[in-house]
Amino acid sequence: MILLTRNITSYSMDTKKLIEMLREKGFKVTPQRLAIYEKILANKEHPTVDQIYQEVQKKFPTLSLTTVYHTLHLLTKIELLQELRCNNGVSRYEPDKTPHINIICQNCGAISDYQSKNVENFLLQLKKELKTKLLGNHFEIQTICEKCRKQG
Amino acid sequence: MILLTRNITSYSMDTKKLIEMLREKGFKVTPQRLAIYEKILANKEHPTVDQIYQEVQKKFPTLSLTTVYHTLHLLTKIELLQELRCNNGVSRYEPDKTPHINIICQNCGAISDYQSKNVENFLLQLKKELKTKLLGNHFEIQTICEKCRKQG
DNA sequence: AAGTTAATTAATAATCATTATAGTATATTT
DNA sequence: AAATATACTATAATGATTATTAATTAACTT
Ligand SMILES: [Mn+2]
Ligand SMILES: [Mn+2]
Ligand SMILES: [Zn+2]
Ligand SMILES: [Zn+2]
Asked: Which of B39, B113, B125, B127 is 20 to 30 A off residue B1, Cα-Cα?
């Protein structure tokens, strides 16, 4: 199977950054890793592990779930992703590291992003107040999404 | 087993409120429910389901884990508790409904509360900005706690 | 191009939190 | 005190995640 035939220039900025980070830390650049990362970036709905698996499998039919779990942990460790375990304990993955709020539907579990000046200012102020170093943050709000509200 | 022998006057304000709310909604007042709620109120460390189980079991040796789960869901539904699912997907329970931030140690998992004018203002502003009705919120910050930092 | 090392796959099995089931016990009402 | 509806307990089932192998494959180095 010839896998890494794409011209380097065809990679997105994000993918190039991933490649660079993998090389830097001595991890191998594999097509599965790139595809998994690209799929999460393309999917703005904070997909679950299984959703990612299903999607990327279309491109790589032999992809195993083990590889997906392993890759997601790796990408989380090198801080390209954040793992979210909000609703029912099922992991979802977040590629957006900028300060924002995740609005979570209590009915269907869908997550959408909410950004505002308010969030940014709040975090800036908070950093000043706290003496300890921030490793990460997660702000979430629970509600019923519009789609679910229409159904009742 | 004679269980509900305590004089009503020995109940705390919080417990009295729980009793009232249960009666109001047609749920039965059971010693397990009171004990579980009291234990969460007494424990300021956002205990896990199993921690609550272990603790309350000392008082009621026949207590089942199923009852703990069921009770916690009930108390969450009547809005006396909030379920937190932070890091590892394990549920923790939060009796404090006032706006605050949970500071979570990435090393030992301990959760401490943080309150400030900044947090309050942020939430007030957020409510104005959002059109949808808020069912709940959870703001968390990841860091390494002082205790763990000293150890290295 | 060949050698080395790490990654992927596959096939199970184990773990662990949570949920479902069904029989027994108990709180509340009469 | 008896009736009845709910709650409790014990046990089993579920389901996502992790662990363990070992064999194959592919990325990287020289
Ligand atoms: Mn998000
Ligand atoms: Mn708290
Ligand atoms: Zn929804
Ligand atoms: Zn700690």
From this structure: B39
